[in-house]
Specification:
The structure is a single chain. With 200 residues, the protein is mainly beta. It contains 1 helix and 12 strands; from the N terminus they run E-H-E-E-E-E-E-E-E-E-E-E-E. The strands form 3 sheets. A 5-stranded mixed β-sheet has the order 7-8-4-11-12, with no helix packed on it. A 4-stranded antiparallel β-sheet has the order 6-5-9-10, with no helix packed on it. A 3-stranded antiparallel β-sheet has the order 1-2-3, with no helix packed on it. A hairpin with a 7-residue loop joins strand 7 and strand 8. The two termini are 18 Å apart.
Amino acid sequence: PKDEKFLTWKSDNLIFDAFYPSETGKSVGIVDTDQSTLEKIAMCDWMTAEISNATKGQVLNFAMKRITSRIVVNIAGFNPEFAADAKVTDVKIVDQSDATPQIIEPATTYTDYIPYPQGDGSTGSTYTLLRGRNMRYQYISLKVGNKEMHTAILNSNFENGKSHTFNLKVGKEKIEIESVTVSDWSNSVTIPGGSAGEIV
């Protein structure tokens, strides 16, 4: 009960939809361009669930499923021409919303997404971004010193609920994707203090 209002069953069978997070004011599955902190990236971790044909009085247990995929950029190493203390800066995931890789014509609309950083830019540092349904084709952009470099378009199916790790080898003239790892992104936890709210 809330404000002396109770859940009432208007019919014997009902359908329930649940969304997380629910306070963002954004459309479901749309992610922010700035995901640079834990708080900001958490608000992009969209999950949904549906219970069909719930019977009158049934206890509702929602099994939430992610509707985003995760991109992890791992700085796997630098080519020998760099000093041992080499670092990358300004790591971004750039989305080309109107690009078509099969056509020679370049994109005209570019959107920079700022990932959540872990590390100082040296070997072993990672940069994580949640990919929403408002994103189309992406490449990785970064700087070493004053020089900006980027990868080709990321080739991956980006299945919802999967984590895609791109291991980068950074050279003087280009960035090479050494390998791509796709794994389940399915850690399961009970959210403390979670409460349902009606979306009008």
